[in-house]
Amino acid sequence: MPKVGMPAIRKPQLIDATMQAINAVGLQKASVVTISSYAGVSPAIINHYFGGKDGLLEETMRSILRQLSAGVRQRLDLCTKDDVVERITAIVGGNFDPVQLDSKVIKTWLAFWSQAMHQPQLYRLQRVNEKRLISHLMIELKRVLPYERAKFVALSIAALIDGIWLRGSLSPNGIDGQLAQRIIADYLEKQLPSETLALHRQRQLLKRALL
Amino acid sequence: MPKVGMPAIRKPQLIDATMQAINAVGLQKASVVTISSYAGVSPAIINHYFGGKDGLLEETMRSILRQLSAGVRQRLDLCTKDDVVERITAIVGGNFDPVQLDSKVIKTWLAFWSQAMHQPQLYRLQRVNEKRLISHLMIELKRVLPYERAKFVALSIAALIDGIWLRGSLSPNGIDGQLAQRIIADYLEKQLPSETLALHRQRQLLKRALL
Amino acid sequence: MPKVGMPAIRKPQLIDATMQAINAVGLQKASVVTISSYAGVSPAIINHYFGGKDGLLEETMRSILRQLSAGVRQRLDLCTKDDVVERITAIVGGNFDPVQLDSKVIKTWLAFWSQAMHQPQLYRLQRVNEKRLISHLMIELKRVLPYERAKFVALSIAALIDGIWLRGSLSPNGIDGQLAQRIIADYLEKQLPSETLALHRQRQLLKRALL
Amino acid sequence: MPKVGMPAIRKPQLIDATMQAINAVGLQKASVVTISSYAGVSPAIINHYFGGKDGLLEETMRSILRQLSAGVRQRLDLCTKDDVVERITAIVGGNFDPVQLDSKVIKTWLAFWSQAMHQPQLYRLQRVNEKRLISHLMIELKRVLPYERAKFVALSIAALIDGIWLRGSLSPNGIDGQLAQRIIADYLEKQLPSETLALHRQRQLLKRALL
DNA sequence: GATGAATGAGCCTTCATTCAT
DNA sequence: AATGAATGAAGGCTCATTCAT
């Protein structure tokens, strides 16, 4: 009499265990035995549910990417449609969501980034994610800057996001999400047209007044 | 009398082979057999010269860091003492030196960055390097900006450098060093006092006139 | 449900294979491959059940010591409580039990004795065993001899046991258990008080009469 | 221009280094590198002088046996021809000579004893030595005991010697040569004819009187 | 669905030995 | 005579995976 709905329980459980293991000992030493022991199950079950270790790793990466994507989307949905500054802030905020700054997640991210160079499947996932960030930024920037300039600024913001994240990943204090926001806000202040910035300031005042 | 002076030949040879192997198959699959086969020698020799695989990996990291450091120092030595923009450009240039942009070196860097989280020795090396970049930038920025502002800008530039580098590492086209310089020049243009920028422009004109 | 209860089968099987291997090629050449091939299983299983080669060797030593200890205890349980000669004969008999005189066991003993000098865990086991022999002998001898004399005789008997055993180990004919008993009986004849010996003779006559 | 007489220097030097290495880390871990480092020379030299590691080990064993043999012969040469007790005491004394009780020598002995089971050359050496002890004892004992009894006593004494030695080898306090002499003297006291013992006592008194 | 048992491939390392110098 | 260099073989161990239960 098979239990139904087990996959829905086991899969997230094993994905979380994978991140715990990577956090604790690194990807290289995160064996199926280690991972499954974190989940409190038998190593054989990984093959059962993910067809092998590679499958599990891929799903773990996908899981993180899904969370990132959802975080950005949620924040964007709360924004005014035409306040470019607010929307870019939302995109940045999604990338520095507390969930993404958890040590488990950071180490897994970094491990996969390095790994992606040599595993086509991970590489593809990573590329999609990377392009999505640029795409999100471009949608906003194109509205207030000429195309080439928008592209230049988008690349810069993306670089700032990834650079702050990368440097923070190695820091004993972890990543400082607020500093990230300040750095990028400062950057936008100097790159965006004054109307765009003015509009943003107005909206912010209005919001505060309403609360 | 035996053959002498082999260490001076073998050590760089094995370090280069290590980077080749990491480039080709990734750190995880870069076994001593793989590495030594790239060097055309026996695997046992790694233990002979480096005391083990870990020793070789550490020396490889050190080698890259030394090259990076040397690249920056050389460029700084060619600069005018008081042209802050030129000096920062030199620091950035060192970080985007063609040697550092070689696929071999990029992948090794990234692999070690990820690995550093779980190996104290690599971690220490990485931290030293990270702090040195900030330190180099601070020396220049402190001269033209208030301390707190200098720190803020230094972190931003460091983030831009690492971010561009990280994003480029994953790009099929590799890292675009010139774009990096343009992005950072643009950033400086907006952050530094106008006198500083003016001085720089004057010097550049003078230089071109002399050639 | 998986196969269960394998440890109870595999562990003694591997311990026996270890002794076979030591008997055949010596401890130095008894690799995990050799040992596991005697057991007809994969080398990896040694790590599975004993955590490594050292664990297996230690368990093998323990197994021999247990058998020795059990052999002595069984024989003592069959003895009259107050017949010192009979009881010492039992102790000696346990040390020259056919199981202990098997070539496999002798060579393993000797290999471990030599090894014990450099492995704390084996050393401890060996010392415990050594002291237990003296302790068993002392319990009997103290009842019929002054303390100091008892100690002297106990050391002598222990030396005779180990000496005969050691010399026999190297002999092509193996160890002669009966000769050992004769030598030690002769020694006791000259060391123990005449009442003790008389009592023993009486009991022996009685026993034979009963059969 | 080859140096002459080097073998006479190098060979004992390497044999001593071998014993040092065995004393320090055990036979199993006494590699040619370890041994040659104790001698302060290159590992390759072992092959040069002994044709390989096995040759060195065999020569080391031979060296110990030679010393043992010489120790016994020297002591016998100092004895009265017809004092059996004195002569047996000399034989025992040779076996417990301070040189033979050195930790280095004990551990090497034991290692070789165990090893001898599986190396014909070492086995032969060991057997010769073993028989020589019995032979020395028999020469004396035959003069005062019937043949069969002499054999029995010779075996007993040999067992006592080896037993005390073996047990002492494992003891943290090492081997107690004086205790060995007392145990064997006590044994002889009870096994030899009274005339033999009387003669010995007379000679001893005479000797002391002369000094 | 889940697991304990078992394995084969591969990894890092050690080591005795050979060789050119 | 002596050695640093180099290696092939072997050793212990880890690990992802398979399988019967």
Structural features:
homotetramer, 211 residues, mainly alpha, Tetracycline Repressor, domain 2, 11 helices, 80% helix, DNA-binding
Topology of this protein?
Four copies of one chain form a homotetramer.
Chain A: H1 6-25, H2 32-39, H3 44-50, H4 53-77, H5 84-95, H6 98-101, H7 103-116, H8 120-141, H9 147-170, H10 177-191, H11 194-210
Chain B binds a DNA duplex (21 and 21 nucleotides) through helix 3.
Strand content of chain A: under 5%
Tell me roughly what share of residues is in helical segments of chain A.
over 70%
* CATH architectural name of chain A: Orthogonal Bundle
Q: Most extensive chain contact?
A: C-D, 39 and 40 residues
Helix-strand category of chain A: mainly alpha
CATH topology group of chain A: Tetracycline Repressor, domain 2
Tally the helices of chain A. 11
CATH homologous superfamily assignment of chain A: Tetracycline Repressor, domain 2
Q: Judging from the principal axes of the Cα atoms, what is the shape of chain A?
A: elongated
Question: What is the gyration radius of chain A calculated from CA atoms?
Answer: 20 Å
